[in-house]
Amino acid sequence: MENAPSKYTVSFGLSFALTSVVNALLVVAKEKSHAVQNWMQHLTGHHWITHAGIIIVLFFALGWLLAQINGGQGPKMAAKRLPGVILAGAAAGYLIITGFYLIAD
Question: Is the dihedral of CA 30, 32, 35, 38 positive or negative?
C-alpha cells in the first residue's frame, strides 16, 4: 500500500503551483502598469523587493490555509498526482512570462 503524502506536502505543493502562476501574473501587471510598479517601488524601496515579499507571504499563507481544509486534514490528493500539478503550475508561470515578453515586448 502506498503512503499518502502529508497534508503539508500536498498543501504547500498546491500553494507552490498557484503561487507560480500569481508570480507570473504579477510580473505582467508590473510591466504593463507603471502605476502598479510605482506603488510597489514606493512600498519597500524597490518593486522586486515588494514582489518577492508578496509571493513569499502568499506561498506560506496559502499553504497554511490549504492545510486547514477538510476539517484540518488538508486537501486529498494521490501522491502520484502532486508532482504533475506542481510541474503544471511552474510551467504555466514560465509560459505566461515567456509569452508576455515574446508577444508584448
Answer: positive
CA separation for the pair 103, 105 (Å, rounded): 6
Cβ atoms of residues 60 and 51 within 8 Å = no
Distance (Å, whole) CA 37 – CA 23: 14
Give the span between the Cα atoms of 44 and 47, in whole angstroms: 7
> Using an 8 Å Cβ cutoff, are 11 and 63 in contact?
yes
Amino acid, single-letter form, for residue 68:
Q
In sequence order, what are the residues at sequence separation of 6 or more whose Cβ sits closer than 8 angstroms to the Cβ of residue 10?
66, 74, 75, 76, 77, 82
- pLDDT tens for each residue of 34-91: 999 999 999 999 999 999 999 999 999 999 999 998 887 888 888 899 999 999 999 9
